[in-house]
Amino acid sequence: MFQFLFKYPYAAFSRGELVLLGTAPRWWLALLILISAAVLGLILWTRRSRSVDGMRGWRLGAIWGLEVATVAVLWFLLWRPALAVTELKPRQNIVAILVDDSRSMGLEENGSTREQRAVSALQTGVLTELQRKFQTRLYRLDTGVTRIPDPESLGAAVAPATHIGSGLEQLVTETADLPLGAVVLLSDGGDNAGGIDRSVIQGLRNRRVPVYTVGFGPQSVDQDVEIEDVVVATRTLAGSRLSATVKFQQHGLSGRNSNLTVRDAGKLLASHPIALGADGRPQTENVLFNVGNAGARTLQFAIEPLPGEANRANNTLTRLVYAQPEPQRILYFEGEPRWEYKFIRRAASDDPMIQVVSMLRTTENKIYRQGIDNPKELADGFPTQAADLFGYQALIVGSVDAGYFTPAQQRLIRDFVDRRGGGLLLLGGRQALSDGVWGGSEVADLLPVVLPDAKETFHRDPATVSLTAAGEDSVICRLVDDPKANMQKWRQLPYLMDYQDPGRPKPGAAVLAQMHVGEHTMPMLVTENYGRGRTAVLATGGTWRWQMNLPLGDNSHGLFWQQLLRWLVTDTRGRVLASARNLTLFDEGHAQISAEVRDKEFRSAADVRVTAHLIGPAGVSASVELDPVINSPGRFQADWTAPTPGLYVAELTARRGNEEIGTDVATFQRLDGVAESFHTEQNRSLLESLSASTGGRYLQPGELKSLPQEIPYSAAGVTMRQIDDLWNMPAVFLLLLALRCGEWLLRRKWGVI
Asked: Residue 290 in contact with residue 241, Cβ under 8 Å?
């Protein structure tokens, strides 16, 4: 309709420039319009006395306005308006047509696949018309572009992935010395590479190549549940309980019930009932499970399919979790004999992954050591060297004043958390926290609370406990799996026989549990991340009463302490820190393996050699040497290609000469044919953004026939300057007719012809 009224397509006006071909100066045009307006106004003014009452006032002004508009249009046409526009030279430019050939384009809708609809849209005369005007090139698009002779060569849409950005980048590179006039992309917008890089967009814009996108597929899918993401720790201790947050959404199944399951190699680890919420609204659920034995675990998180779901492949996501086999060592310094010390050690002894090495000050100058590996360990008291303290993964400080530690030892504790990445837990007690002057120590900045500037903050009085909202979601405080039952369990715990005011939590700290003393409430357990490590304050020395007063067989006290101690040490890494850039490789095997190596004081170690031994499915085995990263001392990385789908384990070893500094393990997996099962609805926003960023336009399949008229106005390729007359547009005739008819109708209505 636009082209019928204005003679040329919209693209010509959006990219063209209005010019006047008349030889007379333009100011003459403005002057003639003003003179005509004055003459018409004078004529109507002199005749007003002979007009009926209906032609006075504003009505007279309306008639004058219509007459002036008519004369102005006629004067304007005499100056020969035209459109100056840049057009592609016929048959001298290339138009690239990219058809998405991935699996999502093979989805059947209303009796035909998306790819079949794309081919049909091209064969309705559009392709023939483009071939008549341009040199056309057809491409199949998946992870790149492949030239094909005709649409029938596309096949059955079985490509495992779509990388729109990579395909466009390849096209721009291959046509760098060719006159590329425009790109036409027929796709559902599904992109498995995480989006289109700005560099690709900039490359198209630099050459002024517009990308016209044609979208296929519905923008929402009926009766479908899709897991969008699973957030779970990638590393933990063997036998740990983990909490995973599963994000999903559904369409057409609101109000239905299903089960969220966690499996390891087919073995059911957890099952959690869920109720599906509103259509299209993101929903999250937390599920708790035990990771099991040591080693690499491929966990499957799934929502059980419901009747009517056509796509069930997007109900499942896999995540890798590495369960460390080595026990972790915790140094516990207690300033006085007390029940809390005994029961903490008893709880830790039941956990094979935790080894508590303790120092108990029995008298002023006497230390009782337990859990040591050899008689020399800690024989000289609390460590004074980084190499000695950094051999532990966590540190617990009980009822001991800060002055017991020298300023150098206090700085060492700070470096233990900040640089080494260890965990630090301060307990309440007679000589702890504010009563031990820890607020004025070198360690104060580490603490998750601002300690009160007061003494006698420790009280031997009863206090009850309860969880906060943050504690409800924390694995540390999960005594039973059901969240509501867990909250109730905490409220029913025996009261504490002592408590200590920990002060005010710092911004960023998390209060997991709180104490109630009469009408007063204060934090009991506060945690925070600091530097590479983490810190916590437990403002009581009386949790031992839980074990003493709970029924026989109730292990709430032991479970709480085991989970708290595991939280302290789980993220404490060794001198070699291995990682894979992407834990899951979709449909391609390129993996980047990195390592961070540190010396005995956990400073960057650059003068080392790092090698990775990789083991994969079907007997895959390889050794790769990592290269130092420029301007990043102590960091190394290497690229490697996983040849087949499956789980891969990379063991990284760092050596300085013949000395082995340390080892670590990184895991990743390659999954083929999975990515295209997710987000199968049309990604219109990506297609619209791509076309708008390059000067093209997003089109529905039915609008494809307008492309042969729009593409010629591209500014890329070999162009020519064209002048198109506008005076004979149908819209001009209709405008003049509307002005005259409008005046006639008003005169008739007001009784003046």
From this structure: yes
Q: How far apart are CA 143 and CA 551, in angstroms?
A: 62
Is residue 330 a contact partner of residue 355, using CB atoms and an 8 Å limit?
yes
How would CATH label the architecture of 328-570? 3-Layer(aba) Sandwich (3.40)
Q: What per-residue confidence (pLDDT) applies to 724?
A: 81
CATH classification (class only), 90-219+681-717: alpha beta
Q: For the domain made up of 576-675, give the CATH fold.
A: Immunoglobulin-like (2.60.40)
The pLDDT-based confidence of 443 (bands split at 50, 70, 90) is very high
CA-nearest of 591, 607, 590 to 599 is 607
Reported CATH class of domain 224-324: mainly beta
pLDDT of residue 349: 94
711-744 pLDDT per residue, tens: 888 878 777 777 888 888 888 899 889 988 988 8
Give the end-to-end CA distance of the chain in Å, rounded to a whole number.
34
> Other C-beta atoms within 10 Å of 21: how many?
13
Q: Provide the CA 214 distance to its chain's centre, in angstroms.
A: 26
* Phi (first) and psi of residue 214, to 5 degrees: -120, 115
Average pLDDT over residues 215-235: 90
| Average confidence score pLDDT of the chain | 91
Give the count of beta carbons closer than 10 Å to the beta carbon of residue 73: 14
Burial of 380 (0-12, 13-18, 19+ CB in 10 A): exposed
Check for a shared fold between 224-324 and 328-570.
no
Q: Which two tokens stand for residue 297?
A: 């675990």
What is the number of H-type helices and E-type strands within the chain? 18, 41
Please report which residue ranges of 135-266 form alpha helices under DSSP H: 164-174, 198-206
At residue 262, the 3 state secondary structure works out as: strand
User: Residue 154: phi, psi to the nearest 5?
Assistant: -70, -35
Q: Which sequence spans correspond to the domains of the chain?
A: 2-86+723-749, 90-219+681-717, 224-324, 328-570, 576-675
CB contact at 8 A, 400 and 432: yes
Strand partners, 585: 670
Q: Which pLDDT does position 627 carry in this prediction?
A: 96
Q: What is the model's pLDDT at position 752? A: 64
At 193 the pLDDT is: 77
